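User: Please predict the structure of the protein below. I'd like the answer in structure-token form so I can feed it into my own downstream comparison script.

Assistant: Understood. Taking the following sequence of 386 residues as input:
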Amino acid sequence: MNDNNDGKSRSQPASRVPLVALVVGVVGTLGVYFLVRGGGAHPPTSATATTPSASAAAPVAGGEGLGASQRVGGPEPTPGGPAAGRTGAAGVPGQSCKGLAKTCGATPEDCCASLPVQGGAFLRSYDGVTNSDKSHPATVSTFRLDKYEITVGRFRKFVKAVANGWTPLPGSGKHQHLHGGAGLNDGAEGGWDASWSGTLPGTAGEWNTKLACSAKFQTWTPGEGANETRPVNCVDWFETYAFCIWDGGFLPTEAEWNYAASGGGEQRFYPWSSPPASDAIDDTLAVFCGASCSSAQNVGAKPKGNGKWGQADLAGNLWEWTFDGYSKSYPAAACHDCAGVAETDRRVIRGGYFSASGPGLLASVRNGAVADSRGDPIGARCARAP
């Protein structure tokens, strides 16, 4: 973690204890949460973020994120490790729900429901209340964003597939509806890197160990149980990206995620805010540290808090991995179906989580975590071609 404000990455001393800080909040006063790299201590519930005044000129940019190192594109796989002998294969849309009962949401439905998000223009992290910086315009093409975060039950099917030898095809996971299949950034999207397959656990036992990052707050269980419709946590960026590819989708970009949570050009304060500047929040709208601080709950348990296009839990429950690499500020250039890939050791997370206070759930709040870190506050949801 670095303390400077110049947006440059600083490497950590090799002898430093491998605690990495998750800084949640808004420019100004920051609350600091901690995750253990590869393990995961639950963040203290007393840490909160303070909203700056409406006149603040800087974008709501979160904080320093989780850790830093000099790796590019994530950790190198161990030769002869879990990826040895595997063969890449294409994903199948919605296969994570094959054979699963329709048990997600307040009115039980398909856990793989994916809803269209009508494309358009908006201002990144702008809400006109905590952040009045209009210098980061973006345009997002129409796409689909899953209604629910990835559940334990859905992830269980993916774990079985990987343990049986599945890995993503190199180059898969692109936004294939853009630029004739070439994807984001004017067709420069690279997709899955073959070297990343070595980061995926190779056996069911290894998965059980990796996903047991918090005895109190982890949602994964080695066998089917009461948590099947809770969002899976303790997952790193590589695992969630691979899951979305296996399930026929991709990770949403930060711009896509922010657009959906902001209600597009409405620039909502919270995903449910109506009118857009409304700061109303209570325990009927989100899983967060309101009247009580508990743990991740079943996906879609707070339908009153759904976003403009119907997605649940865009604020609270779990932080969500996005495709982008994390940097302290947005690029100066306008964004059209873009993703930040200049720095990829850390990846952007969005949405806040079950133990965050209200300011940590704003649609404008962004943060970063080391790509191979795991902890009980972080999960994901997938996006798909329209």
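That's the full token string. The helical segments are 152-163, 184-187, 204-210, 237-246, 254-261.
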